[in-house]
Amino acid sequence: MNILITGGAGFIGSNLTHSLIGQGHFVTILDNLSCQIHGDNPSITSPLYISIKDKVKFIYGSVTEEKSWQEAIIGQDAIIHLAAETGTGQSMYEIKRYVDINIGGTALMLDILANQPHQVKKVLVASSRAIYGEGKYSSKSLGVCYPESRTKADLEAGHFDPLCPITGEPLVLLATDEESKIHPTSVYGITKQNQEQMVMTVCSSLGIAATALRYQNVYGPGQSLRNPYTGILSIFSTRIKNGNSINIFEDGKESRDFVYIDDVIEATVLALFSSKANGEVFGIGSGVPIDVMTVASILVKQYGVDIELNITGDFRLGDIRHNFADLKKANELLGFKPKVSFEEGIALFTQWVNKQEVIADSYDQSIAEMKKRGLMK
Fold first, then answer.
1. Which of 146, 188, 229, 363 is catalytic?
2. d(CA 324, CA 292)
3. Active-site residue 188, yes or no?
């Protein structure tokens, strides 16, 4: 097949490219080589780009430019749409950029598919767990419930866990399935929801098969260590390698579902080639919640660096407390089952980081940007 991957020089995209080429497919990549991810000179500073640039048809361009799309779509059988601005915190003050790229870029793709000749038969869009907002919970009074965004007043008072809206009692965390309520708490989550809905709606009307994958927190060797806005494993690793302390938000018990890159690639390839995936959305994760304090402690131990882990009580507006994937649907329809445990994956990740040049730590600057706008305490 001829397969177009937007954002194909990124972390997921480059790994997916290697997998598809290894299976005999022809890959075209459309990517703008963002400095935030690839550095100022990608041919030197981006191992991800270097690893794929001579193996694909590479188009340097943007999903916000019609001419880039027109060149990229020619002759393609499928599109894997990964290109997007990522990062919950940054999305809350760079609203137009996130909307223009994530929503506008997707709208432009669909407009071309609706109005110009092409041979695209399938579109797979990278969605996100961020579209759910808070995850799924159980209440003694209500049964299954989906808490609304935590208020600034509650967070300032140190009340971090969502409570039953009727009784005020603690809730029991459940795995978030594909039928869970969609109520994003950040601009990023809103744009990913919009991307997914547009792709699933428009492609269906055009007779193009479509699938959305709601990725959880993807990690592994090769992920960007220079982006201070997304990926706590890379953010914490860069701080540790620079000998800087780690300030952990809230009480350190907030949790995320960390899914290893190899498992994400397997799920994506399964979804691309399975007719059972057509018209469906899938949550893709490890199915295991791990709290942030545990993550930081494991990283410090793995790197053997003595730094302070400070639980600050600070918080970011737009952050959620908990969310982890229910993998039943992905297992039943795709045959997807994660193979790499967090213990195995974190060991592989830290071994890779130890071989990399230490990147300057710009995390404090990103925090200052949020505090200046009143988005963080």
1. 188
2. 13
3. yes
